[in-house]
Amino acid sequence: MPTTYTAAEPEVNDLLAQVMERHHKPLHEAGVRVGILMASELKAGGYPAYATIKIVPLKDRLSKQYDAELVIDAHEWESLRERHRRALLDHELSHLQLAKARMTGEHSEITKGGIVFERDDLGRPKLKTVKGDWHGSDGFKDVVARNGNWAIEFLMAKRVHTFATAARDGVTPETQRAVDSLNDLAERMDGMTITAGGITGTVKATQSTITEPEGEPH
Fold first, then answer.
1. What is the distance between the alpha carbons of residues 162 and 176, in angstroms, rounded to a whole number?
2. Fewer CB near the last or first residue (10 Å), C or N of the chain?
3. CATH among 3.30.360, 1.10.287, 3.30.2010, 2.40.128 for 5-129
């Protein structure tokens, strides 16, 4: 069936405004307007997607009256809790950034935060797209079936998990990779039987966590 679109309910727009004001102040202060559409079935690059966002071309800004267009999969949106909804909107807004100007002038303005940004011929804030800090990969179920845990699909998924966990916990990806390696080792050793000096024991492994280093003694 072809994808159908409807205008988002007011509460979706209100939630977006809250997220923009709290986490994307430059966009909020510049008065960036985002139009929201709900899609019956949304895809990006041929794959199902929760949402997509794009900058509206200059000629379309005149008729649409907004600067960027956010499309959300209606079915997925209904399945999300509010915290997930806020996080999704936060993610999509992170793909937008004000086009900075080198100096103030007729086609530029400055936000309260001191960011000098450009305006287009309609007087609307100019935007540019921002790539994510990392990107997941596609996968093939037959490859996973043939290769099991050695499949590159697992490796890519693990890499994304490492970056996301590191960001959540406020540590570097290198530190998180070290912790993940220890946990992998612990998982492989869990239940292993070891005999030494005539004594046999079974390894009971636990998950490693990151702890902050203690301060210098006084």
1. 6
2. C
3. 3.30.2010
